[in-house]
Amino acid sequence: MTISNHLSGSAETSRRDDQVSHDADVLATLGHPQELARQFNLWSMLALAFTVLGTWSTLAQNLASGLSAGGPVSILWGLALVTFCNLCVAVSLGELTSAMPTALGQAYWIFRIQPTPFGRFLSYMCAWINTFGWWTLTASQTAFMTNFILSMKTIFEPNWPAAGYGWLEFLIYIGLTLLLTLINIIACRKDRVLPWINNVVGAQFTLLFLAFALALLISVGVKAHLAYQSGSFVFGTWINTTGWPNGVIWFTGLIQSAYGLTAFDACIHMVEELPAPSRNGPKVIWLSVMIGAVSGFLFMMVCLFCVQDIGDLTNADLPFVELCLSTMGLTGAAVLLALFVVNGVGQNISIMTTASRLTWGFARDGGLPWHSYLAMVNGYWHVPVRALWVQGVLIALVGLLYLFANTVLQAILSVSTIALTISYGIPIAVLLVVGRDKLLPMQGEFRLGRWGFAANVVSLIYCAITTVFFFFPSDPNPAPADMNWAIAVFGVMLVIAVGFWFVQGRSSYLRTEESMLRELVSQAGEEDVLDVTRYGDDDTAKDTGVVGPGMEREHRKRV
Questions:
Q1: How far apart are the first and last CA of the chain?
Q2: pLDDT class for 288, splitting at 50, 70, 90?
Q3: How many other β-carbons are positioned within 10 Å of the β-carbon of residue 317?
Q4: Contacts 24+ apart (CB under 8 A), 517-523
Q5: Where do Polar residues bias regions lie (predicted)?
């Protein structure tokens, strides 16, 4: 029995080693050494992706916008439509992830399937848009947690004067940003810590979903002065208080659902830390969308059944807090909301982790200023510390707007969904333009086959339509303070990206030593290079620049 167990353990270890070696080989054919430990497994990566999406809590936080722009019909059936479309986007990106599992993700794929000067420029723009999207998403979650932390005081003291002080919001925001950055650095010192944190946050997020749903239902059921809404209200009521025609509102009402199902590219940028990424990466992407959508649909049903006064919710600064207070009472709401804040900070850890890997991947391919400096992986902490700190500083600078320009701050925070959606659409559009047969020589384990074209077309139409309506203001005749300034912020982002292209990007992006190697790899044929990587001796690897197993840690200087 002991011998059998020993042999079984040895076989498992051998399989694991073979997988590690194979994953390093595949990454080497993409022009990069294996610098980050593949510390996640399928479940811990799924936990990260699920918590980054945060669908049920995100939908709850935006309940007021959904109620005023279409009402329950838009909230539930709009979510069903958005789920179908996002699954098409997810499997489309999953197919590309399976073929080319690298942290830069969408931008890398663009240049790989269209290796022309224009393709390189489009790739660069997509990289900036995607990076801006993740930076603003991190800032958005941090700002939201700031507001929720302050709300824990205001639910006990509604007229607390300090609640509106910009300097207090800024201090909490800065404190959270510093805390999240430090956790992301320290947690990577040991390989198992960061996945463990994500597992805990994912489990808490699931339990919190059950706790809130049961608390809302039970509270309304046992209190005589409360009543459930009817099924006809929950599943069939249309509400439009915006001033826009109903046809426009149907599309703008999708924004709430789209926001709750955006950022499923988290796994794409974490894929270099996932074993068997060609198989597991796509699985995590579409599963996170499906699980997020189901949990979101169920929780929205609960919220709609438990709504008491729609006017109070739509006029509240934090409608979900108002819903909890009106049903559970002060004590019950305070306890659950405190747990919600703790878990929200945990979600923010995962969001910042993902953003940092994209920042690092963009720098590694020569896209960011001081890219050589930012691309270094710290040898002690086993994480791109410099990229994390620079990213933290940039996110902290956004918080300065609390002090003097809150309208601009809200516009910056709202642009994350737009940027991420556009970053999904660009590689899919390029693939359709150049032809899906371009993907055949590099296909991974996850393939869409004959369904690929249809999934790509649905994805592109969805990304185009939602992007347009993301820029619409909440009513057709808004005052300057009510304008949707996201289009102006996004325009500034594009100007910055184009400016950096002419200053530095056109000479350095995808022109690093490793990027040039990748072009040689592509020209030589993937199988030949895999043979060199897997079986070649060290001298051959040094001559070609291709790293084999055991050499990846030495290929790039670590600090």
A1: 46
A2: very high
A3: 11
A4: 517/31, 517/544, 517/545, 517/546, 518/30, 518/31, 519/115, 521/29, 521/30, 521/31, 521/546, 522/112, 522/115
A5: 1-12
Nearest to 86 by CA among 453, 421, 525: 421
Residue pair 102/272 in contact by the 8 Å Cβ criterion: yes
Separation between Cα atoms, residue 458 and residue 105, nearest integer Å: 20
- pLDDT of 320 reads 87
* Contact by Cβ (8 Å): 296, 304: no
Q: Are 62 and 314 in contact (CB under 8 A)?
A: no
Determine which helix (DSSP H) or strand (DSSP E) holds 485, and give its type and residue range: none
Which pLDDT does position 150 carry in this prediction? 87
Q: Where do we find the tokens 């790509």?
A: 456
Candidates 421, 281, 273; CA nearest to 353 is: 273
Residues 209/296, Cβ–Cβ less than 8 Å: no
Q: What are phi and psi of 308, to 5 degrees?
A: -105, -55
The pLDDT tens digits for 4-45 are 555 555 666 677 767 778 888 888 888 888 888 898 999 999
Coil vs helix vs strand at 393? helix
Q: Is the pLDDT of residue 547 over 60?
A: no
Residue 54 sits at φ, ψ, to 5 deg, of 50, 40
Cβ burial, residue 117 (10 Å; 0-12/13-18/19+): exposed
Q: Token pair for residue 54?
A: 């945060």
Q: Which two tokens stand for residue 551?
A: 């050499």
Q: How far apart are alpha carbons 509 and 361 in whole angstroms? A: 11
Helix (H, G, I), strand (E, B) or coil at 70: strand
**Which fold would CATH assign to domain 36-524?**
Amino acid/polyamine transporter I (1.20.1740)
Taking a C-beta distance cutoff of 8 angstroms, is the pair 337, 77 a contact? no
pLDDT tens digit string along 235-278? 999 988 888 898 888 988 888 888 889 899 999 999 999 999 99
What secondary structure does DSSP assign to 131-192, as a single string?
HHHHHHHHHHHHHHHHHHHHHHHHTT-TT-GGGG-HHHHHHHHHHHHHHHHHHHHHTTSSTT
Per-residue model confidence (pLDDT) at position 193: 93
Residue 424 near residue 459, CB atoms below 8 Å: yes
pTM exceeds 0.85 for this model: yes
What are the domain boundaries of the chain?
36-524, 525-559
Residue 3 has pLDDT above 90, yes or no: no
Residues 6+ apart with CB under 8 A from 528: none
Q: What is the DSSP string of 236-300?
A: H--EE-SSS-HHHHHHHTHHHHHHHT--TTHHHHTGGGSSSHHHHHHHHHHHHHHHHHHHHHHHH
Q: In DSSP terms, which residues pair with 70 in a beta bridge?
A: 239
Contact 411, 215 (CB under 8 A): no
Q: Quick one: average pLDDT of 181-208? A: 94
- The pLDDT tens digits of the residues spanning 457-491 come to 999 999 999 999 888 887 888 877 778 888 888 99
* Cα 172 to Cα 149: distance, rounded to the nearest angstrom: 8
